[in-house]
Design brief:
Structural class: alpha/beta
Radius of gyration: 22 Å
Number of domains: 2
Helix content: 40-55%
Number of strands: 6
Strand content: 5-15%
Order of helices and strands: HHEEEHEEHEHHHHHHHH
Length: 326
């Protein structure tokens, strides 16, 4: 057994680099089986929108799209940085899958069942639990009766209730977990939060994760990339915190600061063009210039400062010379 305190590879890095390989499907299958409460067998991994090997995006959000033996789609996403409209993004991601995986002319019954599993490391909504499941049902407004499918629909579509047709959402707010495991799913939550696996675990997939997600098993090149990945996440979080603090201190409205942070963090994502434009415009304000100056004095790379603040490389190069740092 691996000692409890030995850190393993973070799950988002594993999703990006390791879990996409067929030899490692057992890890992801174990996690999904524990969460969904039925055995999952992955047929293959499909390409997903944000799982591109881009240095600017990889420390913020990582996702993986799998198809199981029943043809159902499972979208698993790890989100590190805050997004006020993350609930809307969950809806968008699922809606896109529903429409993409049905061919023109196919009957509606050919629509794939979609599971959206979202692992977040920030406060989202108001709630103290660490596992949330969206349960969509048709409820009678007068008698609170839950609408049921007919026997023919049950047999034809192989469902027990109407919500079996619709997408299923899971939200794991792992930072809310108190590190006390009461069941096998909690063992997985502990790992997702701490990148550690306690002794004598019983959860499916964790023993395989314990063996295959060891830092020491990475090649020298992979170790360097992983360390850079971790460093970038910390820097991004620190700069975002600084932006919020400086914005508040200089009297910027909270809503304006929020839009700036989201625009900077998600400027490259589809549908975020306006946010990025706003981020660049606000980046020229005095408050953002002060942040850039502090970042340069701390020795942060110009490329990273540019990505986070929206300032251009040339602007930052000039600013660095003005500070006497070149």
């Amino acid at each position: 057994m691996i000692p409890k305190k030995e850190k393993l590879i973070h799950f988002d890095w594993a999703m990006k680099k390791l879990l996409r390989h067929k030899t490692n499907f057992g890890i992801l299958e174990g996690f999904l089986s524990e969460l969904l409460k039925f055995d999952i067998q992955i047929e293959n991994i499909l390409e997903s929108e944000s799982n591109q090997d881009d240095e600017a995006d990889k420390f913020n959000r990582v996702d993986i799209l799998a198809k199981n033996k029943k043809g159902e789609l499972l979208l698993i996403e790890v989100q590190n940085n805050p997004e006020m409209d993350y609930f809307h993004r969950m809806l968008y991601g699922v809606s896109k899958l529903v429409t993409e995986y049905i061919s023109l002319g196919d009957p509606y019954r050919a629509i794939k069942k979609v599971y959206s599993i979202n692992i977040v490391y920030f406060q989202l909504g108001q709630g103290s639990d660490y596992i949330y499941e969206y349960q969509g049902e048709f409820v009678g407004l007068n008698n609170q009766e839950i609408l049921q499918p007919t026997l023919y629909q049950k047999n034809t579509f192989r469902i027990q209730k109407l919500s079996d047709i619709y997408p299923k959402y899971y939200l794991l707010k792992v930072n809310n977990f108190n590190d006390v495991s009461k069941n096998t799913l909690d063992e997985w939550i502990y790992f997702l939060k701490n990148s550690e696996i306690v002794e004598n675990v019983n959860a499916k997939g964790l023993e395989e994760a314990q063996e295959k997600l060891r830092y020491e098993q990475l090649s020298p090149v992979e170790k360097k990339r992983y360390e850079s990945f971790q460093k970038n996440k910390v820097i991004a979080e620190n700069v975002e915190f600084t932006i919020r603090t400086e914005a508040h201190a200089t009297g910027l409205a909270e809503g304006k600061a929020k839009g700036l942070v989201e625009g900077l963090a998600e400027g490259k994502a589809e549908g975020k063009a306006e946010g990025k434009a706003e981020g660049k415009a606000e980046g020229k304000a005095e408050g953002i210039l002060e942040i850039a100056k502090k970042s340069l004095r701390k020795g942060m790379e110009i490329q990273l400062i540019a990505e986070v603040t929206g300032l251009s490389i040339s602007e930052l190069t000039t600013l660095k010379k003005e500070l006497g740092l070149s």
